[in-house]
Amino acid sequence: MAGLPTPPDGVNPYLYYDSLIEGLVMPRTSPGFQVRLLVTFCLFLFFGIASLLAFTVHCVAQRRLGRQLWLIRVVRRDGGSFLVGNHLALIGAAGIVFPVVCCGAIWTTERFYIQRTEVHSITDWRLAIWAPSFVCGWAISWSSLHSYLHVVGDKTPRWMVKGGIFNFLNIFSIGGGTIITLLIIVLSVVGARTGHRVSDHYDAFHTFLEQAAASWQPGVEDQVTMARSNELSLSYGASVESYFVTFETLLSIHAAISVVIMIVTCGTLALVLILRRQIRMSLEDLKQTATRIEELGDSVAGPPTRRGASQQRWQAQVRKAARGEDVEGLHMEQARRIDDLRKVEKERIIICFILFTMSLLLFTQNVFTLVTLRDLGSSWPRTEFALTFTWWFSTVVASAGAIAHLWVEIRHFPPPRSSLSGDGSTSPSQKPTALQSLSQQIHIDIQVHTLQEIDSDEQEKERGRSGAGARLQPSSEKRARSVSFRESEEE
């Protein structure tokens, strides 16, 4: 048989080739492989349960706040209307779909390499991992990026709003993701069919070699049997070659996609850091509001300055609070927005860490598998590394991320509406939550700001009527931008 070593003299050639090919297809595993598979299986189950719990807590929190649950919706901005995905809903779906597919792949791997009973299904399950993992990673990474790019604030460059960059990114993410998903599905189907042909050819070849080995007699060469053996060997080799070509194409595509997802994730992380800076500026502004307003006093701060839309919205809230209509609602609303942004910041950092780490691991495994795939003489440690490297490390990363995500959801779980008393404080029998503590922290600042802001407006009107031609400097422009940022994020 071409490409195979010659058996020693006096050894049954058919039995020799049968054991040789079986060892290449299903090598003997090292001790502890079954235990490692079992631990990986349990970690995937834990990841799925933790993700489901985090998503459930998020749904309950949204219902408690009176918000609607959604997966994808249209968000209107100054530059047009855009599709934005709910990253928490997408993570919840990924936390259910991805562990199920991976647990199926682990189960068939155990049956194939340890029990040696499953041959056809291992190809289906391993190829089935590609499409769900890509869809989950692509959707989460791009929806996270869009959620930040679509926050149009006072400092957003005009080319981003009017230059069509949002439309281009939407087309690229949605259209490109759909095309790549279809390509992966088509190649996976082709690879699965090719894998079935490999299994069928192997079964036929294995059965023939067993029968020929049983009827072999030393010193007697059956030319018909040898010819049939060579024919089956060539057919099996051709099917394996076709399978390798398809599988290598899939590995190359997925390695390139992993790099794209890592780049998008890094872009999202950069925007998260910008958001963190905005939150810190917002908190610092709220703490120093009364001091800055009192320092302005009756002094003339310069020529009149045009107020932006975000400042006008803030002024409307201030006037409403000053009339005594909704003082408690104002400071609770500001506290809730800041708490929401803190929660989003933590969640995005966790998501970026998980996506980047898993994409990097997947890229490493793809490259390593491309090198190892055609080396039929590879040792079992190299084969096991190529098979389960991503499983081992990604389960640890995903499980840690799921625990952190669940902790963030519980940490920022909103209190019941009845837990606040009339003055915005908690009852003596209840422990203040993070949102209530933050609300009480900025309560005095907002009340002082309310009174001083109205006084400032009245002084401006008096100076305008007296022809002084000057008015007080408006409230901090940075605070107005941060309020605009928070309101845009809330939408």
UniProtKB/TrEMBL annotation:
**Compositional bias annotation for Basic and acidic residues:** 476-491
**Taxonomic superkingdom:** Eukaryota
Which residue ranges run through the membrane? Answer: 37-61, 82-107, 127-145, 165-190, 251-275, 349-369, 389-408
Region Disordered: what ranges?
452-491
Q: Does the keyword Ubl conjugation apply?
A: no
Q: Which UniProt keywords apply?
A: Membrane, Transmembrane, Transmembrane helix
Q: What is this protein called?
A: Uncharacterized protein
Q: Which organism is it from?
A: Leucosporidium creatinivorum
